[in-house]
């Protein structure tokens, strides 16, 4: 298995990315290789600070970098030798099994749509956030930022995509799918939420349990939380902030520790023909290390192949 | 000052409401009276368990009750002798200075719109949630549930209404107004958020500081948080859930204690010609006690009069 990582993406790149990869290399099963994509000289320079570089790390040279503020589509077409463009080229050509990056989120998302493309039948791929649950494990929330505006049929499909993803990622036979809403009753919510409810209810391929509310985010009511990328992003970032608040206030708690974004390190794009994980711009070495660990599990789960089979 | 409270509204009514009123009575300044609205016999029966009833509590009889699940508009027209209908009648006739209730939220909101009505020029009154801030004090978030779907001009006006409300409630000369969004840059967000940003920016009557993200909810970046009633409700309820989570996990922290809905006990409707506070359906005596304390401050602030003056 080859796990490609954008060495140049993220506020703390390349240092934090390379350090995270080196840490991950010590834990990965022996069938895994890490491919660092970026400027070879810079990466080798950073390596010098870490003694012997694990043999399971390879470098693929990329001359260029897409910066955080750049327009995704423009940058991708103007910089074919950027680490993100090369990462997706390798992924498309099946030279690597997954591409992970903490750089320009828009470019990572657009790059996935333009290279490996959406699975046939998928209206809008989404970024799936792992939300820690009281009592252990995670729910996935879709979308957490790729699609700020979603039509009811898009949200309804998130329910199905999320259910398949959760089934193969968490080994659940019937993941509980819920719609994030402002009340438990069917008729509650925005016009979009009201129109989404019956679509989810009518879909016999999923185990739809109805609406959940903001207070239920962490309470293990659902395995798949359906929401648009606007509400989902705001809610997800609020959840992640709890760890920072707790740290500053000297609160030590196992569950709150799980809200630390570093604990998972990345969020997969669900609905595309391949494995992509997007990490925080501020990713630390620990975050990158844990993302690579999850990346291994995601490749093993073959979730995207199962989704494609189920839809087609 | 007369503070009217719906004695029959809420899951734990009338017991919890009456007990909360009795507790509040011991703390209220001497110029305040509490008017409990509800079935006189039932209220007097509950009083028996509490020895001498404070002289500052009066009862106004209401024969009927609007239940939690009832359709707001229908219930209000069919039950003119319900505690909610009578509360708004008294408020409209200026027999009381504020009406507070933990009953059917829709009926409380519709009752306000039908009786004291929206202030001239206000597009959509909103429910303002008090969000505790690290470092002390509160921000208000508008809307937290009255308007699930909001047009940009409605959101922009929330900024202005919220600014005036915060100015007089928190004695701030230039409240910081922020738009809840999925990124800090102006062009980020849903189509609605993108269209709202310039409207807020162009309004010279407010101190617009730009977008904030979910991670900023508690971090004292803004005094007024503008959002639609869908996202706002979900975010607010998630925030309130932290106290319950912390309590179950044995976490003791002053700030997290402030996320307990009981700490404020109610949320005002902003943009109507009078003072209305809406409490949680599950309100405990402590929540009702604290809501009555806030109700006193709200009446003293004359915020709704200042809003009407500023708009007209």
UniProtKB/TrEMBL annotation, chains A, B:
SUPFAM superfamilies: Isocitrate/Isopropylmalate dehydrogenase-like (SSF53659). Gene3D superfamilies: Isopropylmalate Dehydrogenase. GO terms for cellular component: cytoplasm. Pathway: Lipid metabolism; phospholipid metabolism. Its EC number is 2.3.1.274. It holds the Pfam family FA_synthesis. Coiled coil: none annotated. One of its GO terms (molecular function) is phosphate:acyl-[acyl carrier protein] acyltransferase activity. It catalyses: a fatty acyl-[ACP] + phosphate = an acyl phosphate + holo-[ACP]. Keywords: Acyltransferase, Cytoplasm, Lipid biosynthesis, Lipid metabolism, Phospholipid biosynthesis, Phospholipid metabolism, Transferase. Transmembrane segments: none annotated. It is found in: Cytoplasm. It comes from the Bacteria. Catalyzes the reversible formation of acyl-phosphate (acyl-PO(4)) from acyl-[acyl-carrier-protein] (acyl-ACP). This enzyme utilizes acyl-ACP as fatty acyl donor, but not acyl-CoA. Homodimer. Probably interacts with PlsY. This is Phosphate acyltransferase. It comes from Dyadobacter jejuensis. The gene is plsX.
